[in-house]
Amino acid sequence: MSHTEVTAGGTVTVTATIMSDRRDCFGGFERRYRWHCPQTATGYLVQRIDRGQTIFGADGSSEVDERETYWEAWRLVAGVVMLPDMVTPIPAAAAHDTWAQVVSGSQRVGKHGSWAMTGTLYWLDDGAPQIQPFRLNNVPSAASMHATPDDPGITSPPLLVNVHNGNWDGRTGATVCELLRTFSADETMSAQDREEAIGEMREMGFTTDAAAHGVDLYIQGGGTFTTEVSSDGEGTDNDQ
Fold first, then answer.
1. Residue 62 Cα to chain centre, angstroms
2. Can you list the positions of beta strands (E) in the chain?
3. What is the pTM of this model?
């Protein structure tokens, strides 16, 4: 877990714990946060989200260049963060905020790109007029949160800023290796040996060199392939 803290103007002190952090080789990610506020805090946490991504095709041409900004809000009562109904506390072991991007790896083979997400957190007291534009399900990217696509006009300094970004490359042997490790961990590995694995990676769209290099990296790292059932019912692990 990671821990960040910034104090704004001596008014409210907020800390953010990163509960989990995952990313994959094709630009997918999930990071889960939990806020910690003093028991005297009753009002709203408002977070401005700035997110974007780029995708370049196999020929290097730009396919995607997206940017999005929106604001989302959490109700706090005596330092306790509430669910979107504004009255039910979020369970003690649950995340308050999840940053995620789900992608289809099979559609990104041979491509590369980047992604970035920044969250800037502010405090609003009860009754602040800036909370009025926030509505449930108002911004698709904010899911079921109270959110608004329009700047609510908050002028106070931010409580804290969280930044998350990365690059991905769906053309390399390292990506092939990571895919094979994922198949193995998920028990979805279908290749029974090195040559079958290279063939499957080529069918996905990797070049022969990238496929071979990635499969060799996987084997060198101790990776194995599927268990083959022999005629006597005994299983044998193939690792090359």
1. 22
2. 2-8, 12-23, 29-36, 43-56, 62-77, 80-81, 97-101, 112-125, 135-136, 146-148, 160-169, 227-229, 235-237
3. 0.82
